[in-house]
Design a protein that fits this description.
The protein has seven helices and five strands; from the N terminus they run αβαβααβαβαβα. By secondary structure, the chain is of the alpha/beta class. It has a domain at 1-22 and 123-198: Alpha/Beta hydrolase fold, catalytic domain (Rossmann fold, 3-Layer(aba) Sandwich), CATH 3.40.50.1820.
């Protein structure tokens, strides 16, 4: 959104596993999900989420676990990385240890934005972006959809350059997965894009 509103200030843009409107229908984030207000269909469930919500460290793992197609999750991610990820989330909130179990606060705004994007609202317009743009999507991503990538490509009419990178069999958390499970391909793709001569 910032790059669309301030195009002169952004030269290179990487969009990673992102939703982009106007595409209605999402299996887990949109209509019929816990994000929707049951009393006001089509609206975000502000009453349930409030301005921010509390999450335990363990709550970070189920969506990652379900994205990994093997029983033994350590084949896909280093357990030390998962532990560090959970600890970093707790450390982001200085009050996390004051609750039992320990939990960190996360703002609800990104979930609200995601709900509206998942129900077909276009919250920003890519047609004003002028930056070189790389759209990255993990093949096993549960957040973004293939149509988000193709729609975004079509809308980036003023971008100096548009590239896409789909990482085969990678999860939403590819930046944290083992190198051979997509992280190496992600880093290589980022380096190639960001160091390319214009």
């Amino acid at each position: 959104m910032y790059a669309s509103q301030q195009p002169a200030k952004v030269d290179n843009l990487v969009i990673y596993n992102s939703l982009y409107g106007p595409i209605d229908g999402h299996p887990t984030l949109g209509r019929g999900s816990d994000n929707e207000d049951r009393q006001r269909p089509g609206y975000f469930n502000e009453g349930a989420f409030g301005g921010d919500r509390l999450n335990t460290a363990a709550s970070l793992l189920p969506s990652w676990d379900s994205s990994i197609p093997t029983e033994d999750k350590s084949q896909w991610r280093d357990p030390r990385v998962a532990k560090a990820y959970m600890q970093a989330a707790l450390d982001s909130d200085p009050t996390s240890s004051s609750r039992s179990p320990a939990s960190f606060r996360a703002p609800s705004g990104p979930m609200e934005d995601s709900f509206y994007l998942a129900t077909g609202r276009q919250l920003w317009d890519a047609s004003t972006i002028t930056a070189r743009t790389l759209i990255v999507r993990s093949e096993r991503d549960f957040w973004s959809r293939p149509e988000d990538v193709t729609t975004l490509q079509r809308h980036l009419v003023r971008a100096l350059e548009v590239r896409t990178l789909q990482i085969p069999q990678a999860t939403h958390y590819v930046h944290l997965d083992r190198p051979e499970r997509g992280r190496a391909a992600l880093i290589a793709g980022l380096e190639a894009f960001l160091t390319a001569k214009r």
